[in-house]
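Q: How would the structure tokens look for this protein?
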Amino acid sequence: MGTPYHLSFACIDCRKSFKRLVDPLGEIPEKLPCPDCGKSAINLGRHFKPPKRSNTKQWLKVKFLVEHGFCFQRVYAENYEIVPYPDTIEEAKEFVEKYKKHAIQSGI
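A: Here is the predicted structure in token form.
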């Protein structure tokens, strides 16, 4: 057994995030049922910082990024520096285009 750690899961429909303890050597779920609505909550990893539930603009940005394969995994620039995630939906559109080779298969 590895050292367990918490992963963030987010339900885009409810605009809610919750954490679950996982064993990194075990099976790590891609999705879990949302505790509020029962729909799929997506694994957004250890680095996801959820916006406030009332901040619909930021949740739209999260949805856009996830739909394009960016689930808040680390993205590295060509110089191996970590690229920060965008702050706005407009920046997210540029980010998705610029770093599309780093996108992963995910889905809402």
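The chain has two helices and four strands.

Strands lie at 5-11, 16-22, 31-33, 40-45.

Upvote if useful.
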